[in-house]
Amino acid sequence: MNQQQLDKVRNQDGFIAALDQSGGSTPKALRLYGIPEDEYSGEAEMYDKVHEMRTRIITSPSFGGDRILGAILFEVTMDRTIKGKPTAQYLWEDKQVVPFLKVDKGLAGEENGVQVMKPMPDLDALLDRGIENGIFGTKMRSVIKLADEAGIAAVVDQQFEIGRQILGKGLVPIIEPEVDINSAEKAQAETILKARLIEHLDALEPGQQVMLKLTLPEQDDFYKECIEHSNIVRVVALSGGYSREEANDRLARNHGMVASFSRALSEGLSAQQSDEEFNQMLDASIQSIFDASRT
After folding, report:
1. Which domain holds residue 253?
2. At what angle do helices 186-202 and 149-167 cross, to 10 degrees?
3. Contact at 8 Å (CB) between 254 and 217?
4. Per residue in 199-257, pLDDT tens?
5. Which residue, 223, 283, 286, 232, is CA-closest to 253?
6. Other Cβ atoms closer than 10 A to 167
């Protein structure tokens, strides 16, 4: 584990940029960016287009380690280059932004009001590739839709079981049990989730450091005990479908939590913008998310 990167993620003001849309969410991300599906054909061209978008964000003068702690990459992005350097290497060496890797393979079907992660039989090999590329940590997402005790326990058990495998490789896992913002049982689900999270955090060894990525809660400062836990590097918030304005507003009321926004970060960016317009829009977005993350 890189101590300099750990110190940055743990102590510096800033937030984590989620640039990890995968196969399922990429067409939507491109559409919002002003590239309709009739402008590319097939997966290879789609990933070329999304890499162009991510490269434009990462190489923008607005995007740097002064306000951004880390960036979460999709596997295909890690395997590509920016300005001739592997993406993770470019992020750290040129931008002082700590690289993370999305490692899950998507969600299983809904059961007991939740979606656990699909199996990851090749995880060890992927983690080894991540280490070779200079990756600091990982991210994996499950979804909670109902306040179901058994379902939420299954989500958290799976997250921490795989989290231990990731810790065993010397990487820092971001554990992401997302609570659906549209759930009619959101507050109750969060109560069950917090209890399970604290149970698992308490069971970690003293040196085992993890991060949590959580939906902005219904009750302000609800995850205070998690943020202050000795096994936590940082608790970050997902935007989950909230607009940037609402996500920032909710985040500012949750002290010690910092953003890890995806759609809310790229909101308003367009392929049709000039570089000056693009960089100004990105700069304003980054500043607003940075400010909300400093509370």
Report:
1. 3-293
2. 40
3. yes
4. 999 999 999 999 999 999 999 999 999 999 999 999 999 999 899 999 999 999 999 99
5. 223
6. 20
- Report the C-alpha gap between 8 and 3 in whole angstroms: 9
Structure tokens at 229: 């836990």
Distance from first CA to last CA of the chain, Å, rounded?
Answer: 28
Domain tally, the chain: 1
**Residues annotated catalytic, as ranges:** 176, 213
CA–CA distance, 111 with 89 (Å, rounded to integer): 39
Model-level pTM greater than 0.85? yes
272 to each of 33, 35, 62, 269, how far by Cα in Å? 8, 9, 18, 9
Q: CATH number, domain at 108?
A: 3.20.20.70
The pairs formed by 48-56 with CB atoms below 8 angstroms and a separation of 24 or more are: 50/21, 50/26, 51/76, 51/77, 51/80, 53/29, 53/266, 53/269, 53/271, 54/19, 55/82, 56/278
Rounded to whole angstroms, the Cα distance separating 142 from 149 reads 15
